[in-house]
């Protein structure tokens, strides 16, 4: 069994999981969501194996090109979801969230992303690669959940305002609180992995902890948006719609930091 | 002064500034920074002058961006300080709630009677609370006792520690900007170069490039020796990600290149009249070489690694890679130049020789060698330690703010006729479930005690 076969099986398991989640969404049978959860969990195990194999084969951390990095982001996304779903029971977010994961996996398997492992360029030969990238991506995964629950909040809130009874335990209030909890986990992770470990590594590799490189600036912007989320919420008591919109913008900023900067803006981070 | 404090203690102002800084930062990533005026003119035409004047082309170091950051820091400082003293008061001089109905109005509360006197009840309550690691403050009036039990009291200070961390980081940034130094040193093997603004020098003993089997670069390694006065102090082999530090200066492997100023060329000399004639000579920059036959001397005057002819007919190099090496040589006979011109390594038939006197020689540029130099980035950053210290505060504060929720349980105990009425209530801003279960177990254990 090699890495690409494992990756493919993982991908299929995630699709099956999404299928069950959507079946749950339409039939409202809880057992279907549980099956979906189990498939996602099984996928996570195989995905972990794939990443370990990749590490052994290539001899370096499994996130040094776009294929690896997308695959790892998919892994982080499922990992975060397994935790959040286990704690807060947000099953109805499952189908939408799985779509994001499937999107990431599909992008990773697209022929546009060269998947062969290439030797590591000198700048990436550092243990900080592990710390910087993995923790940042884990933080982004929690932002992704907050993104989904915030969109669902907006929909649920609009429904509740019209007086439609949502007939589910996942009320607008609960969605709002889950979004906050996810940001509360994602924000420290992103701060540590993205900004602090990023600065430490930049200092070790480039001789300066901050260079105003577009990727650096965009991760700072992402950080600002979530800082705004927390302050407007805790100090000024903005909950609900405005909060949800800020969380959505924050995730979009994180997404742009991850993808957009590479393709649209040139800078030091040109390799990842 | 009062209105100043009022303005800067506003969270609304903080949010407004944060939004402004965010928008400005985005702008700086959309417009390429620190390019030449010509580049901006080509890109933006008419408005390019305006962009330069508004410092948008060097936005992150512009006066107004730094002003925004300064105002923001001031805002954070005032916000934090004005909110700190009520918090400290609450921590060190807390008010003990003495009104029963206020406790009963709280969401988590309980009330029941125990067949104990006040002293006994107090002791049992305290025992139970300390078992759950609560710290207790109390007050006694006649037949009544008031207790305040708290846990994880540092939680509310998380945000203050985050803000402190941010300020320390910003101070570090200012120090780096004002007293930091970042220079590039290109140094060849054997060369000794003085380190800018320092009292020591650096010698490159060895420079090596490692390759992967597929030919791509694996690593660059420079063995550097620090020289103070005329003594070799220390030596270290640095690579990318593994710098050398000495006296606050840090030396990074950052690039490499060829020393095109001092190449050695191999040139084959032929004669048009005699096809058997061949002289192989090695020629260094600025050197003259006398041919074995006759009295002609050849000199190398110029070398270009990637030869092109520019728009105005000027000779230039397209890059520093040896893609199209060209050499300018001259032939001399007794203090008189007899020919001169360019020869090309890749195009032996393309030599452009200009003869002042008829000459029988032709030249082929066969090979070239140049020493590689190592590109060392020198950096002195007295602000860096502030950044690390600030980062520690920042993380510590975030963890406290999010994962160290303060819990509070308040008691009012009232004795009447050898019995004591226990009124208890729990308060938590975050993580209410945990408090609820802890509150329940404290109360259960009290009830069960005989």
Written overview of the protein:
The complex is a heterodimer of chains A (272) and B (450). In chain A, 76% of the residues lie in helices and 0% in strands. Chain A contains 8 helices and no strands. Chain A has helices at residues 3-27, 30-58, 66-88, 94-109, 128-162, 172-205, 214-234, 241-264. The longest helix of chain A has 35 residues, at 128-162. The mean pLDDT of chain A is 89. Chain B is an alpha+beta fold and 450 residues long. Helix content of chain B is 33%, strand content 38%. In chain B, strand 18 and strand 19 form a beta hairpin. The two termini of chain B are 61 Å apart. At the A-B interface, helix 6 and helix 7 of A face helix 2, helix 8, strand 7, strand 10 and strand 21 of B.
Unreliable stretches of chain A, pLDDT < 50, 5 or more residues?
none
In this structure, how is the largest beta sheet of chain A organized? none
What class, by secondary structure content of chain B?
Answer: alpha+beta
Helix-strand string of chain A: HHHHHHHH
Task: Give the integer mean of the pLDDT values of chain B.
Answer: 88
Please give the largest β-sheet of chain B: 5 strands, antiparallel
Gyration radius of chain B, in Å? 39 Å
C-alpha-based Rg of chain A, rounded:
19 Å
- Count of helices of chain B? 10
Number of strands of chain A: 0
The count of DSSP E runs of length 2 or more, i.e. the number of strands of chain B, is 23
The poorly predicted ranges of chain B are none
> What general outline of chain B do the C-alpha atoms trace?
elongated
Look at the helices and sheets of chain A and give the structural class: mainly alpha
Sheet-strand content of chain B, in percent, reads: 35-45%
Q: How many DSSP H or I helices of chain A? A: 8
């Amino acid at each position: 069994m090699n890495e690409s076969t494992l990756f493919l099986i993982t991908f299929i398991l995630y699709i099956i999981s999404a299928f069950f989640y959507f079946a749950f969404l339409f039939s409202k049978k809880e057992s279907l969501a549980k099956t979906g959860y189990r498939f996602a969990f099984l996928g996570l195990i195989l995905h972990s194996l794939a990443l370990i194999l990749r590490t052994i084969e290539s001899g370096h951390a499994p996130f040094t090109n776009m294929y690896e990095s997308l695959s790892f982001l998919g892994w982080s996304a499922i990992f975060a979801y397994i935790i959040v779903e286990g704690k807060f029971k947000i099953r109805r977010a499952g189908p939408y969230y799985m779509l994001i994961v499937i999107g990431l996996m599909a992008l990773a398997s697209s022929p546009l992303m060269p998947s062969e492992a290439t030797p590591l360029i000198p700048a990436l030969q550092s243990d900080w690669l592990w710390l910087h990238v993995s923790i940042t991506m884990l933080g982004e995964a929690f932002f992704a959940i907050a993104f989904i629950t915030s969109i669902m909040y907006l929909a649920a809130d609009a429904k509740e305002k019209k007086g439609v009874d949502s007939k589910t335990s996942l009320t607008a209030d609960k969605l709002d609180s889950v979004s906050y909890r996810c940001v509360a986990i994602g924000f420290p992770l992103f701060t540590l992995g993205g900004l602090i470990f990023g600065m430490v590594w930049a200092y070790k590799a480039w001789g300066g902890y901050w260079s105003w490189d577009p990727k650096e600036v965009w991760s700072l912007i992402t950080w600002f948006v979530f800082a705004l989320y927390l302050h407007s919420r805790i100090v000024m008591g903005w909950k609900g719609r405005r909060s949800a919109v800020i969380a959505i913008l924050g995730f979009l900023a994180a997404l742009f930091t991850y993808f957009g900067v590479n393709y649209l803006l040139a800078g030091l981070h040109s390799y990842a | 002064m009062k209105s100043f404090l009022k303005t800067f203690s506003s969270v609304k102002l903080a949010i407004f500034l944060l939004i402004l800084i965010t928008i400005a930062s985005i702008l700086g990533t959309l417009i390429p920074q620190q390019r030449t005026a010509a580049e901006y003119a080509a890109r933006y035409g008419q408005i390019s002058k305006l962009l330069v004047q508004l410092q948008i082309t060097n936005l992150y170091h512009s006066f107004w961006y730094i002003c925004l950051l300064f105002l923001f820091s001031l805002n954070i400082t005032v916000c934090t300080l004005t909110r700190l003293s009520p918090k400290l008061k609450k921590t060190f001089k807390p008010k003990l709630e003495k009104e029963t109905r206020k406790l009963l109005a709280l969401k988590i509360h309980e009330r029941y009677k125990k067949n104990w006197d006040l002293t006994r009840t107090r002791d049992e309550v305290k025992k139970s609370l300390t078992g759950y690691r609560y710290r207790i403050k109390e007050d006694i009036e006649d037949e009544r006792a008031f207790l305040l039990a708290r846990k994880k009291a540092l939680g509310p200070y998380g945000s203050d520690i985050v803000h402190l961390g941010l300020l320390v980081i910003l101070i570090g940034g200012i120090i780096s900007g004002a007293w930091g130094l970042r220079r590039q040193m290109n140094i060849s093997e054997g060369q000794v170069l003085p380190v800018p603004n320092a009292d020591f020098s650096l010698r490159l003993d060895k420079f090596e490039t490692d390759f992967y089997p597929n030919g791509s670069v694996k690593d660059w390694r420079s063995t550097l020796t620090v020289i103070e006065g005329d003594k070799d102090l220390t030596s270290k082999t640095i690579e990318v990600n593994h710098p050398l530090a000495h006296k606050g200066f840090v030396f990074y492997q950052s690039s490499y290149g060829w020393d095109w100023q001092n190449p050695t060329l191999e040139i084959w000399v032929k004669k048009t009249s005699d096809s058997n004639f061949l002289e192989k000579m090695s020629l260094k920059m600025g050197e003259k070489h006398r041919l074995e036959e006759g009295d002609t001397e050849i000199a190398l005057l110029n070398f270009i690694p990637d030869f092109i002819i520019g728009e105005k007919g000027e000779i230039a190099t397209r890059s520093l890679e040896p893609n199209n090496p060209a050499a300018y040589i001259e032939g001399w006979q007794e203090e008189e130049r007899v020919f001169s011109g360019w020869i090309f390594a890749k195009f032996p038939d393309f030599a452009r020789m200009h003869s002042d006197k008829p000459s029988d020689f032709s030249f082929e540029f066969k090979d070239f060698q140049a020493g590689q130099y190592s590109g060392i980035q020198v950096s002195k950053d007295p602000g860096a330690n502030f950044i690390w210290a600030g980062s520690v505060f920042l993380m510590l504060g975030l963890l406290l703010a999010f994962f160290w929720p303060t819990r509070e349980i308040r008691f009012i105990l009232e004795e009447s006729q050898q019995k004591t009425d226990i009124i208890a209530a729990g308060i938590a801003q975050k993580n209410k479930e945990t408090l609820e279960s802890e509150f329940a177990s404290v109360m259960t254990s009290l009830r069960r005690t005989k």
